[in-house]
Amino acid sequence: MKIGASISAAEANETNLLFMSTILCHVGFPRSEIAERSFMRKSGDAWIYLQAGMLDQGGGPVEQPVPYGVTPPVDNGAPLNVRDPA
Predict the structure, then answer these.
(1) Which pLDDT band, with edges at 50, 70 and 90, does 68 fall under?
(2) How much is the pLDDT for 62?
(3) 39 has which bridge partners?
C-alpha cells in the first residue's frame, strides 16, 4: 500500500514514465474482483486471457486471485520499472 501511494503521489517525469501496450489499453484486466479462476476479454482481434496463480511464501502453495483493478498488482506486488525500449 505504501509503495502504491508513493507512486500515485509522484509527479510523472522522464525517469518514471510508464508505457502501456496499446493492446492492454484495449483489453485490460478485470476492473473488479472476480470469483472465477480465469478471465478473458476480447476487443477486435486483440484478446487477453488471465489465470489465477499460486504463491508460496514458505508455508506451501496458496491460491491467488486473478489480478484486477485499474492498476492490477503484478510482479508479486513489486513496482515495475518500465522504460522506453528505444
Answers:
(1) confident
(2) 92
(3) 50
**In this structure, are residues 67 and 73 in contact, taking their beta carbons and an 8 Å threshold?**
yes
Alpha helices (H) along 2-83: 2-9, 22-27
Is this prediction's pTM over 0.70? Answer: no
Q: What is the mean pLDDT of the chain?
A: 75
- Residue 4's φ and ψ, nearest 5 degrees, are -60, -40
Is 55 in contact with 62 (CB distance < 8 Å)? Answer: yes
How many residues are given for the chain?
86
Report yes or no: 55 and 64 within 8 Å, Cβ to Cβ.
yes
∠ CA 36-41-42, nearest 5°, is 155
